[in-house]
């Protein structure tokens, strides 16, 4: 009976190795097509990565006395400052 292959372990070890898929598979006696299929399934089942936070440019202008000053456009977040 063939030993059960821990594909998740191999995928993580391959990612950390810096080797090409073919080189990793040769080194560990794995079939390249089997490894590629398991890698595709692993990637498809992984939750999507969140986008890294982004810095947005902000222009600050003095508010007119006695008038609220709104910053933003369209449906973006608004900030109101009251001076007066």
Tell me what you see in this structure:
- With 84 residues, the chain is of the alpha+beta class.
- The chain has a domain at 7-45.
- Helix content is 39%, strand content 12%.
- It is built from 3 helices and 2 strands.
- It has a two-stranded antiparallel sheet.
- A hairpin with a 7-residue loop joins strand 1 and strand 2 (79-83).
- The protein is rod-shaped.
- The termini are far apart.
- The mean pLDDT is 81.
List the keywords.
single chain; 84 residues; alpha+beta; two-stranded antiparallel ribbon; 2 strands
Q: Total number of helical segments?
A: 3
What characteristic shape results from the CA principal axes? Answer: rod-shaped
Strand element count: 2
Query: Which stretches of 5+ consecutive residues score pLDDT under 50?
Result: none
Structural class: alpha+beta
Q: In percent, how much strand structure appears in the residues?
A: 5-15%
* N-to-C series of helices and strands: HHHEE
Distance between the termini: 83 Å
- Give a quick account of the main beta sheet: strands, pairing sense, barrel closure: 2 strands, antiparallel
Biggest sheet: strands side by side, in what order?
1-2
**Mean pLDDT over the residues:** 81
Q: Estimate percent helicity.
A: 25-40%
């Amino acid at each position: 009976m063939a030993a059960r292959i821990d594909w998740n372990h191999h995928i993580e070890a391959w990612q950390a190795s810096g080797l090409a898929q073919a080189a990793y598979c040769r080194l560990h006696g794995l079939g390249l097509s089997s490894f590629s299929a398991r890698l595709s399934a692993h990637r498809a089942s992984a939750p999507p990565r969140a986008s890294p936070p982004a810095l947005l440019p902000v222009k600050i202008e003095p508010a007119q006395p006695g008038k609220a000053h709104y910053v933003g456009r369209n449906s973006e977040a608004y900030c109101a400052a009251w001076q007066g």
